[in-house]
Design a protein that fits this description.
CATH class: Mainly Beta
Order of helices and strands: EEEEEEEEEEHEEEHEEE
Number of helices: 2
Structural class: mainly beta
Radius of gyration: 16 Å
Number of strands: 16
Helix content: under 10%
């Protein structure tokens, strides 16, 4: 899987609006693969990504149902909620470790860095997580679930300087390569599912598979 990452002249205003400039002119990537048994509820999840000299910009849009968010603080287990995730190695060599940035539909996040799954894991301090500016279309807490169809968005900006504190970063510039995957999950909702952008060939859901990351090519 290959995603071309466009360079921005004017960064987007952080308001979780999928249809504004510059997002409206950037193609989306669909998270159309699933792990495990095909779920009864299969949301439509898509993502866009862009960059400039200082930040990486990401926005997700999800056509969903059975939406839940109970994780209240950064570094809580947001994957149990309705959640979108960006796992990435900021380099072409996944052996250098990867970040897993997980954000639920209410904007609560988990951010770790690890050399391999569960090894040498760094839990990024909450004060550092707050440097990732995130906006979202739904309230922070959703309980009980929203069962009817709903569209929600999450948008955020990752400072490259933050990544450089914890991992080796190849500077985003034309022709630079990172490796990554995008995910949508909802582990503890009434209709759990595990969706991926780049396919992962495993019998049980597991997102911590850097060898299956797709490619981000910066333009």
């Amino acid at each position: 899987m290959l995603c071309k990452v466009k360079r921005l002249v004017n960064p987007p205003k952080g308001d979780a609006d999928w249809n504004k400039s510059p997002w409206k002119d950037i193609p989306s990537e669909l998270l159309q693969n699933y792990m495990g048994t095909k779920p009864d509820h299969l949301p439509k999840a898509e993502v866009k990504i862009a960059y400039d000299d200082t930040d990486i910009y990401v926005i997700f849009r999800v056509e969903d149902r059975y939406v839940r968010a109970v994780a209240a603080e950064h570094q809580d287990n947001v994957c149990k909620d309705s959640c979108v995730e960006f796992f990435f190695t900021p380099d072409s060599d996944v052996s250098k470790g990867y970040f897993n940035l997980e954000i639920n539909c209410g904007g609560t996040m988990l951010l770790h860095f690890q050399s391999t799954k569960g090894k040498d894991r760094i839990v990024i301090p909450k004060s550092e997580c707050s440097k990732i500016i995130c906006t979202h279309s739904l309230p922070r807490i959703i309980d009980p679930e929203i069962e009817e169809p709903i569209i929600w968005t999450v948008e955020y900006r990752i400072p490259i300087s933050l990544l450089e504190k914890y991992g080796q970063v190849t500077t985003p510039e034309p022709n630079a390569i990172w490796r990554a995957n995008f995910y949508k999950c909802a582990d503890k909702t009434s209709h759990p599912h595990w969706l991926t952008w780049a396919p992962i060939d495993l019998p049980k859901p597991d997102f911590h598979v850097p060898q299956s990351f797709g490619t981000l090519e910066f333009e």
